UniProtKB/TrEMBL annotation:
Pfam families: DUF5670. Keywords: Membrane, Transmembrane, Transmembrane helix. This is Lmo0937 family membrane protein. It comes from Sphingomonas horti. The chain crosses the membrane at residues 29-45.
């Protein structure tokens, strides 16, 4: 589930970076948050 959200945010970030330069700042913040949450889950989450 979290990986799906991270991929969606990555795609939105790329769209924002290339197409919608105005909303790029917000998408960058969301991408950074997704990476931080992903790393936290990777190191502290349970193994599936």
């Amino acid at each position: 589930m979290l990986w799906t959200i991270a991929v969606i945010l990555l795609v939105l970030w790329l769209l924002g970076f290339f197409a919608f330069h105005i909303a790029g700042g917000l998408i960058h913040i969301l991408l950074v948050l997704a990476i931080i949450v992903g790393l936290i889950q990777l190191f502290t989450g349970r193994r599936v």
